[in-house]
Amino acid sequence: MNQKLDKKQVSFQSENTSNRLGHIASNLARLRTFCNTAYPEAVESVADETMCFIEWTASEIEPEYAEELVNIQVQLARWKLKFTSLWSNESERKNMSEQASAWSERVLDMSGLLSETI
């Protein structure tokens, strides 16, 4: 693992799990947005980062939530395997965008951040 990734992991894991889930939800929302742009590199980059975030979080949360996160991680990995063909198909990109949006909402709900009182 390179130093930049090590620093990112240490920084990310210093957050509480609610905030980590919030970061994952935010990344998934960014994926939704980037699927509607002309920047496939942005989608791939955010997908990679999100898979790392999930890896660094799943073992520290309730098993049923961890399972959902791992399922998201697996689907992101599947997208990466056939990314070129998905990206070139507007219908597939729309499906990716919609799925990322649904995941974002679900992970944000898991985080409990919206129900916390300030």
Order of helices and strands: HHHHHH
The fraction of residues assigned to DSSP E strands is under 5%
Output the structural class.
Answer: mainly alpha
Distance between the termini: 38 Å
Number of helices: 6
Average pLDDT level: 92
Q: Residue share in helices?
A: over 70%
Task: Using the alpha-carbon principal axes, give the shape.
Answer: globular
Uncertain runs = none
Give the strand tally.
0
Q: What value does the Rg take, in angstroms? A: 14 Å
Largest sheet: none
Structural commentary:
The chain is mainly α. 81% of the residues lie in helices and 0% in strands. It contains six helices and no strands. α2 (17-34) runs antiparallel to α3 (40-58) and α2 packs antiparallel against α6 (90-111). The protein is globular. The model has no long low-confidence stretch (mean pLDDT 92).
Provide a short characterization of the protein structure.
The protein has 118 residues and is mainly alpha-helical. The protein has helices at residues 3-13, 17-34, 40-58, 63-81, 83-88, 90-111. It is globular, with a radius of gyration of 14 Å.
